[in-house]
Amino acid sequence: MSLVADPGVRRARAWLSRAFEPGSVDVWRFVERTGPVAAVQSLLRGSAPAEVQALAGRRAGADLSEEDLHRADRCGGRLVVPEDDEWPAVALHCLTLTAHDLPTVRREQPDRTAALVPPVALWVRGDRPLDELVDRSVALVGSRASTAYGEHVAAELAHGLGQQGWTTVSGGAFGIDAAAHRGSLSAGAATVAVLACGIDRAYPSAHSTLFTRVLDDGLLVSEWPPGCAPLQHRFLVRNRLIAALTRGTVVVEAAARSGAQATANRARDLGKSVMVVPGPVTSAMSVGCHELLRARDADRHAVLVTSAAQVLQEVGRLGEDLATPAERPGSPRDSLSDIARRVLDACPVRIGVPPERLAAVAGCEVVDVLRVLPVLELHDLVEWTGTGWRVRREPPAGRLAP
Amino acid sequence: MSLVADPGVRRARAWLSRAFEPGSVDVWRFVERTGPVAAVQSLLRGSAPAEVQALAGRRAGADLSEEDLHRADRCGGRLVVPEDDEWPAVALHCLTLTAHDLPTVRREQPDRTAALVPPVALWVRGDRPLDELVDRSVALVGSRASTAYGEHVAAELAHGLGQQGWTTVSGGAFGIDAAAHRGSLSAGAATVAVLACGIDRAYPSAHSTLFTRVLDDGLLVSEWPPGCAPLQHRFLVRNRLIAALTRGTVVVEAAARSGAQATANRARDLGKSVMVVPGPVTSAMSVGCHELLRARDADRHAVLVTSAAQVLQEVGRLGEDLATPAERPGSPRDSLSDIARRVLDACPVRIGVPPERLAAVAGCEVVDVLRVLPVLELHDLVEWTGTGWRVRREPPAGRLAP
């Protein structure tokens, strides 16, 4: 039987998720220290530490937690809290580590959109358990203004990952996000869309059908309670969750200084793999990708990937999921000695010539020519015309100029 | 006055360049030890070390050196030898270092096509001094079966390098080689084509017009005497020269296991910069490029480049030629505090709302809202309707969803 949190704890975390914009290390530390129920009680009394009380502001006055839980329930959703077995504790552990390292003085703390702090709870819509779905998952992120190339590659990667039983995690936006979900769905695999609005909202509305398909076998996830609007700053805060929930982040197309680059940097800061798909250098939508690949900060740098197999090589467990390097069919030439190659190149195409002539052209002794001719003949590379040696008229495949 | 080698030395090196296929460390060491004139004398007498005598084979019987020098002269060429001032000693010093490190036992030596050994002499056609032209030069190499994308990028890079006074060095093949020469010529810059045949031969013959244009302000260079055929193994031997003569090698398009990859590996082994232009992962002609970028051997790895400025950043002298990172025009949002961004996102588009409402939506105190509203108004991001605050109808450029 799986562990399910106390209803009071769940309601307290629902209250906290509405009272505070996520990403505040002060709020997270306060809740960690006092526990969610006591934290809510002191906030309602107005007796919480001043900096935390101020962050809730007017929102501390109202209690919509019961209503929010009902709204989630009505759309087939639920609130998953750290006290649940379903909480993706392994994946999110990285955020706990980074949050502990953040400065205690407010002025020295990073901007809330960049602070690597765990969520107080996650609103989840869909039937599958969150922790199972993200255990073997990869984030696929990129531009909304993607090109046909980027969408093709995103769909191919997600499809390939899905075929190997890996979950694709992305946002819910147009472009790369949507292509990634579609590619994964086409492989019959689960996908997770991490939203910057309530799980009961379809944003953008053109994606309501896509979200319905995601829900068939996957999840919609959000830090914000039902009904919340996709405000701009929320996307930036949300990006750290996409990076944290997965084993690694793949950037497919990104303009210069884009949100996808920000997600990649979060993944790097969380110690997760950062993978980047290159593109034409003539495409503005690959500029951000190429900047990531050019950045050489210390030993942690982004890895270029071109296939799902290469993605799995980065994030897969040791011994499984190994990519084979790109190959070209071998040529019989490859196995030849230097002298044999020179003699072969010295052979004319039409008229056969004697070994003495081959030795002069190849720059070696006649005895060497006589030594290598049988090898060349064995490989069907040369033939005896009756009067001399020449290149075989129909050489096997692979015999091309270098 | 520049130093010009003794006619006897030049003739001896002309003889050596016909007697031996380049790339043999034994031959190079023998010539280094005894000097070119004495080396030729002992080879003609048959008294050279057995391994060297055997490499010359039948070729040691004839002396075409005078004829070769005449043939070069007739096509406007010359033989440049290490004893000349024009010899690119600085660039080729790397080959001297690697040749010294090669094993003395023949069996342990690398294949001649891979051995990093200096040339005994260079046949050069064109008016400009070789050492001057290659002092600030970059190799641009890639596939013969290039795509329109690859040719466009090769021409753009060569053009950009040419505009900054840099010489492009390449082979004479179809595809990327030709596009690189054309791009450089279009900038009125010098190019150097390093051939795998005699400098009096146009190979491929369709490039005879291109080579004529190269000769207007650049050079054709070869290790092989006039009349020599472009035998297949010679291209592989030639590749080390392209890598050695330049400050760095840029691979534009390369199939898996291609000659361009081999040139890049030579450049790496010689301690020169290796730069790679990425391309669509869907293109077979970029597979070799992406493999180079994925290879992570020790700390020496290929650098992704997308522009001539980035190439110059790698090979240029310190303080000159610095590339600026890709940029996006800054948005007024970027400079806002967290609270200001939240208040801005809380502002409705049409109807103005009072600060109390903004505080509730943004999740902060009313006093914070009143503090940041003047900043937002100053940035033309919000406006007062007479009854409340709303987003300014025509926001300045850069205000886009993340």
Structure in words:
Chains A, B: InterPro entries: DprA (IPR003488), DrpA_SLOG (IPR057666). Chains A, B: Pfam families: DNA_processg_A. Chains A, B: Residues 117-314 form the Smf/DprA SLOG domain. Two copies of one chain form a homodimer. The first copy, chain A, is of the alpha/beta class. The first copy, chain A, has three domains: 7-123, no CATH class; 126-315, Rossmann fold; 332-391, Arc Repressor Mutant, subunit A, CATH 1.10.10.10. Helices cover 44% and strands 10% of the residues of chain A. In chain A, helix 2 (25-34) packs across helix 3 (36-45), helix 8 crosses helix 14 and helix 15 (338-346) packs across helix 17 (366-378). The radius of gyration of chain A is 30 Å and the shape is elongated. In chain A, 56% of the residues are buried. Mean pLDDT of chain A is 90; it is low at 395-402. At the A-B interface, helix 4, helix 8, helix 11, helix 13 and strand 9 of A face helix 4, helix 8, helix 11, helix 13 and strand 9 of B.
Nutshell version of this structure?
Chains A, B: It comes from Modestobacter italicus (strain DSM 44449 / CECT 9708 / BC 501). Two copies of one chain form a homodimer. Helices cover 44% and strands 10% of the residues of chain A.
